[in-house]
Amino acid sequence: MNEAKAPKRPSELALRTIVGIALIAVALGAIVAGDIVFWLVCVTLGLLMMAEWADLQATPATTKRLAQLALFVPLSVMAPIMAGPSFFTLGLLAGAGFFIVIVTQRPMLAAGAIYVGLPTLALLVIREQKEGIVFTLWVLALVWACDIGAYAAGRLIGGPKLAPAISPNKTWAGLLGGMAMAAIFGAFLHAMYGLPLRLTLATPFLAVIAQGGDLYESWLKRRAGVKDSGNIFPGHGGVLDRLDGLVPVAPVAAFLVILPRFYF
User: Fold this and answer.
1) Which residue ranges does UniProt annotate as crossing the membrane (predicted)?
2) Global pTM?
3) How many independent structural domains does the chain possess?
4) CA 43 to CA 47: how far, in whole Å?
């Protein structure tokens, strides 16, 4: 009598692909919907990132929840039905960090409020612009393009390591490949959707910043002795793992977006 075979589990690559497509679909849907939907997605991811940041600092559960609650105050005020993203909410973010460090005596935990809150504020500022859909897509997708280009160039070319003590798999070829892929994507948006030239020219340099964010999160994980920041996304790790490049890019991109429109 033949025993029933256990159902075959999808390969790690297939799982990563499926989850990656689902995440992109959610991101695109939120960008198009805008308003309260986009805010809700950003805030949910922000609170999850704060939890993972706290875990990387070996923070007790009660203290972690306190930090999330402190961060939620400025994030909630960023809602479209409240004050929205503004200098006022930027001040509240600073206040949340100050509150956390005073109450918990954990400066790195307090830094997490800024690390998470600033890019959240930046994305909300970008999305509320007149061309917000194109600008927000540009910010997110340039990071995706950078990751794809870096992975492909690193695998195909290899060569000297970028920062072997922090992330032994990253290469200088990967950095250049990520910059090239991001630049191509920026040029495409410029030609097809009128992405301003200042943003188009900045795209490859933002790719470098994205790589820096990736390396910083790798350093945090190495310091904490973990492989991933979390396990919420099968095959991808945690939210910080997926958004590490976006964290430093979003504030810089928001600054570029709100600059006066110069003609080049």
Assistant:
1) 20-48, 69-102, 108-126, 133-152, 172-193
2) 0.89
3) 2
4) 6
